[in-house]
Structure formats: structure tokens, C-alpha cells
């Protein structure tokens, strides 16, 4: 029978293992560091080897335990091997993703394929391999996917990106229904505008303009930081959210959704 850990202890991940894709940068790095800070052994995966190494160093400097997997999330075999190398798996955070903008009438097949491959299939493979291992070990677990506020709002140029993120939401709800009986929870995080390398406009004026605009849209009057999303992921990863599955959590500063 279910005996909840009370209060802050519910956020303790000591003795748990977490796998984080996209761990070399931005939100994925913040998730890897926070989950390690909560006590988990963290396996970080990314295409960017130097960035991964930096994340692992950050974790080790904080006294945590990190392993790295230099891989492409669109390669199912690489993802399987990396996930299977974990002795146990309690948490999967499928964060890796890319941005792409093109008007619908100028969108090419190769744009759509690339974005769906990384942002949808990359998340799908991570979810499938994680759920398989959790079921095999009969250990339960928590899977967190990375959607986006773009799913709610749409937006010019966001056809490929938003379609992939909408597919991630569908994956999340479907998988949650299918694996709940194994004690596995599946939830999505749909952040608003977060300051990361993905949203860097490489021009100080343009950046300031965008951030001022985004800040005005939030009742909290600021843009998001990677840590704001990582805390939402920690909540979903931990026993604090033990009765939450198939949901979308929106760390977006309260930006009004249509
Ligand atoms: P980021 O660019 O800082 O980090 C993305 C990471 O994913 C990078 O380290 C990159 O190397 C990795 N990656 C990309 N393709 C990969 C592949 N094929 N295989 C392995 N790793 C790969 O971006 P971020 O802002 O931290 O975004 C992280 C996630 O959050 C993405 O899924 C993004 O769509 C989502 N998101 C971001 C924002 C935002 O405003 N920054 C808002 C909503 C959702």
C-alpha cells in the first residue's frame, strides 16, 4: 500500500537514478544539476560532449554523482544502450530539443523531418527505453517530457516546432494511460520563454527587446530561468507528485493562455 513521504522528504531522490537528455545546456543542464542536488545519480546525455563534461563537473563540484553519454537522441540504438547501461532507472527527463522557425508556406520536408526527429522521436525513444527498463525492473518510475507553451499559443513560424511539441503532449498522455499499472507516471512540462542558448538572439539590443516584451506578458514581470523549469521537473520526478500523471505543468510566469 502507498505510504507517502511527507513534506520536503518527498523531494529527496537519494538512492534513485535519473537520466536527462539535453543535459549539456540550458534547461537540461539545470535539471541534471537539480536532480543530482536532490540526491539522484544522474546520467546526462547530449550531442555536445564539452557541454556534457561541464555539466558533470558542476554536479561533481556540488558533491553529486554524474555519468555522461555522448549520443544523438534520434538514434534509437544509442539511446537504448545508454539507458540500459543504468543499473536502475527511476527518472527519465527527456529534455533535448532544437528550435526551428519557418512560415508554413516556406516549410520544407527536410525542416519538418529534422524537427520531428529530434523533438518528437528523440523524446519517444527516451520514453520507450525508460519505460521498458522500469517495467523490466518492476521499479515504477517517473518520466518527464519537454513540451512547450507553443502548444497552447501557436505562433508565427512555429509549425514544425509546435507540431513536434503537440506530439510530445499526445505521447505523454497516451503513455501515462498505458504504464500507470506498472507504477510509472508520465508528465510533461510546457515552459514559457526561458533564457537559454536556444533563446539567445546573439544581439544585445534584440535580446533586451525580446526579454522586455516577454517580461511584460508575465504577471510576475520577468522571463524564466532554466532553474524555474528544473524545479517543475523535480516536482514531477519526485514522490511529491505521486498522484499526478498524464498532466502538463506550465512554468511560464503565468502568461495568459488562449
Ligand atoms: P538548449 O539549446 O540550451 O539545450 C538543448 C540541448 O539539447 C543542447 O545541449 C543540445 O546539444 C541538445 N540536443 C539537441 N539535439 C540533440 C540530439 N539530436 N541529440 C542529443 N542532444 C541534442 O535549449 P533549452 O532552451 O535548454 O531547451 C531544452 C528543451 O526545452 C527543448 O526541448 C526546448 O524545446 C524546450 N523549451 C525551451 C524553451 C525556452 O524558452 N528556452 C521554452 C519551451 C520549451
Output the number of helix runs.
8
Bound molecules: nicotinamide-adenine-dinucleotide
Structural class: alpha/beta
Main beta sheet: 7 strands, parallel
**Quaternary assembly:** single chain
Distance between the termini: 41 Å
* CATH topology heading: Rossmann fold
The percentage helix is 40-55%
Q: Give start-end ranges of low-pLDDT stretches.
A: none
In order across it, which strands form the biggest sheet?
3-2-1-4-5-6-7
CATH class: Alpha Beta
What is the CATH H-level superfamily? Answer: NAD(P)-binding Rossmann-like Domain
Report the mean per-residue pLDDT as an integer: 96
Order of helices and strands: EHEHEHEHEHHEHHE
CATH architecture level-2 label? 3-Layer(aba) Sandwich
Number of DSSP strand runs: 7
Number of domains: 1
CA-atom Rg in angstroms: 18 Å
What general form does the structure show? globular
Amino acid at each position: 500500500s502507498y505510504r507517502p513521504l511527507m513534506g520536503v522528504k518527498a523531494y529527496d531522490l537519494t538512492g534513485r537514478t535519473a537520466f536527462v537528455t539535453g543535459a549539456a545546456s540550458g534547461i537540461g543542464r539545470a535539471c541534471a544539476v537539480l536532480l543530482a542536488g536532490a540526491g539522484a545519480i544522474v546520467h546526462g546525455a547530449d550531442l555536445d560532449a564539452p557541454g556534457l563534461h561541464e555539466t558533470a563537473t558542476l554536479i561533481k563540484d556540488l558533491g553529486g554523482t554524474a555519468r555522461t553519454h555522448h549520443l544523438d537522441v534520434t538514434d534509437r540504438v544509442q539511446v537504448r544502450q545508454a539507458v540500459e547501461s543504468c543499473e536502475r532507472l527511476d527518472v527519465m527527463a527527456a529534455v533535448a530539443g532544437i528550435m526551428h522557425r519557418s512560415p508554413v508556406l516556406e516549410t520544407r520536408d527536410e525542416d519538418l523531418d529534422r524537427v520531428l526527429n529530434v523533438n518528437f522521436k528523440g523524446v519517444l525513444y527516451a520514453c520507450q527505453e525508460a519505460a521498458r527498463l522500469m517495467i523490466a525492473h518492476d521499479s515504477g518510475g517517473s518520466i518527464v517530457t519537454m513540451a512547450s507553451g507553443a502548444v497552447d499559443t501557436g505562433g508565427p513560424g512555429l509549425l514544425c516546432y509546435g507540431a513536434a511539441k503537440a506530439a510530445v503532449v499526445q505521447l505523454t498522455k497516451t503513455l501515462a494511460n498505458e504504464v500507470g499499472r506498472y507504477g510509472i507516471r508520465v508528465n510533461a512540462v510546457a515552459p514559457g520563454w526561458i533564457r537559454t542558448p536556444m533563446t539567445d538572439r546573439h544581439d544585445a539590443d534584440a535580446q533586451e527587446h525580446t526579454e522586455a516584451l516577454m517580461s511584460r506578458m508575465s504577471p510576475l514581470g520577468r522571463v524564466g530561468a532554466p532553474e524555474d523549469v528544473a524545479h517543475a521537473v523535480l516536482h514531477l520526478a519526485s514522490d511529491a507528485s505521486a498522484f499526478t500523471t498524464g498532466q502538463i505543468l506550465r512554468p511560464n510566469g503565468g502568461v495568459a493562455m488562449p
